[in-house]
Amino acid sequence: MLVERLRRAGPKRLLSLDGGGIRGVVTLGYLERIEQLLGEKHGDPNFRLADYFDLIGGTSTGSIIASGLAIGLRAAEIKDRYFALGGKIFGQKKGFLNYLTKGYKYDSKPLEYALRDFFGDIALGDQERIRTGLCIFTKRAETFSTWALFNHPDGMFYSQNRDWPLWQIIMASAAAPTYFIPVFLEDNAGDRGAFIDGGISMVNNPSFRLFLLACLQSYPFHWVPGKDNLLLVSVGTGKSDQRTSNEVLKKKSLLGWAAAMPEYFMYDANQMNQMIMQLLSESPTARVIDSELGNLEKEKYLNFEALSYLRYDIQFSAKELGALGIELSKAKLEALGAMDNPDNMEILASIGAKAAESAVLADHFSDTFHVNQSTHKITLFETGKSYPLPFQFYVKREIPIEACEIGHPFYVMTMEGLMHAKAGDYLVRGIHGEYYACDREIFYKTYSAVERPGGGGSSAS
Fold first, then answer.
1. What's the predicted TM-score (pTM) here?
2. Residue 397 vs residues 38, 57, 441, 449: alpha-carbon distances, Å
3. How far apart are CA 127 and CA 121, in angstroms?
4. Residue 340 C-beta-side C-alpha neighbours within 13 Å
5. Interior angle at CA 359, CA 355 and CA 361, nearest 5
6. What is the CA angle 51-56-57, rounded to 5?
7. Any catalytic annotation for residue 459?
8. Parallel, antiparallel, or unpaired for β 145-150 and 133-140?
9. pLDDT value of position 108
10. Which of 38, 41, 43 is nearest to 74 (CA)?
């Protein structure tokens, strides 16, 4: 049963897939390579990514791929369907008058028919045909809230959303403003909302939100963080090289600026997610964020690596594509960024395959996260709760430490993370020079002042 897999202890593996329209073909190039390497690693030529990843999440085009993988399709099968879908979905534009008056370029019916054919009557709550954890990100337009729709039965809103057909949720995730009309969904409680592309938010790259979904107590998964406990693989759709000159910007019209805004936003959202994920993780694929931050290799938040993290993506620049042996004109490079041009699919597929061959390495996937690795139990203990364990009484050995009362609130960065202390608490220095904080009352109950070894006054007061 799926629910047993979601509740099972042990290391967990997450897959996060960006939005990006037709550029999802690039994503599939990376996924084919990952699936091939993992199949070799597990000795199974028929290996599926649904067998490896315990939770797969996606936004917009990423939600189509995520759902296909979650029902057990191989990446190559999804790519074949993508090529069939692309021309139908983005083939026939609405007239310019329709675009001006109604605000969308494409008829959503071809997308609906294609997704219905793809996923049939599978609902979000189908615990048999959906083989792994699945999360689809969309945005509710009238409340401005980003929704994570997932299939864990213990979720707060699972009973209200479980009957929604996958094809309909995916349409909601992919209903990009100016491209398609919003999708209206009504849940089992009778609440009806208008939903648009999840990419119109910070979750166009959903990696950080997927990490929170896996670990926060507000959500039902409750997976334990740690670089040996969680692996998150994040895959992009490729990005345009947006660098330009002052002269070009001086000539940009109002419509030109308006057309560029989605790309600006998606770029910033992706950079922010990338920065947060590298700050939280151990990552062999860490990229330079900017010239000042570098790749954040030495900057770990609270001195704790909350997960292992892999990020695969490519910039459509002459430099990066040239390194792969792909030479394109400036006009063609600029055209690759379009999210709705099916004529780009062949070259995008080639870029994805070659980029993956170069970037995705077998040793990125540690044996710690091998599917057949013997499961080790990971327990999270929390202060304030009681546990039926055979506790025994112990007395601390007489190991001298140094301590100093601090008259104001303070923080201490320790190997375990950041400690918070209040005014009057003690800053303690241990025998190895390590610092930690000790509550004033606990300090008085635990320690007594002694002469400093070798004379010179007391070492604790």
1. 0.84
2. 49, 50, 19, 15
3. 13
4. 17
5. 135
6. 170
7. no
8. antiparallel
9. 80
10. 38
Cβ atoms 230, 15 nearer than 8 A: no
Computed on alpha carbons and rounded to an integer, the radius of gyration of the chain in Å comes to 26
Q: How many CB atoms lie within 10 A of CB 40?
A: 12
Cβ proximity of 260 and 336 under 8 Å: no
User: 335: how many CB neighbours lie within 10 A of its CB?
Assistant: 16
Phi, psi of 129, rounded to the nearest 5 degrees: -85, -20
Task: Report the side by side order of strands in the sheet with 426-429.
Answer: 402-405, 426-429, 435-438
What tens digit of pLDDT does each residue of 106-135 get?
A: 778 888 898 999 999 999 999 999 999 999
* 121 assigned to active site: no
Question: Out of 84-88, 278-282, 379-383, which region has the weakest mean confidence (pLDDT)?
Answer: 379-383
Tokens at residue 438, please?
């000790």
Among 242, 311, 228, smallest CA distance to 274 is for: 311
Amino acid identity for residue 316 in this structure = F
Between CA 352 and CA 124 the distance in angstroms is 29
pLDDT per residue as tens digits for the range 158-181: 999 999 999 999 999 988 777 788
Catalytic: which of 16, 18, 54, 60?
Answer: 60
Single out the catalytic residue among 197, 308, 313, 425.
Answer: 197
Q: What is the pLDDT of residues 86-104, one digit of tens each?
A: 777 775 665 444 444 444 5
C-alpha 36/C-alpha 236 separation (Å) is 18
Q: Residue range 432-451: average pLDDT?
A: 89
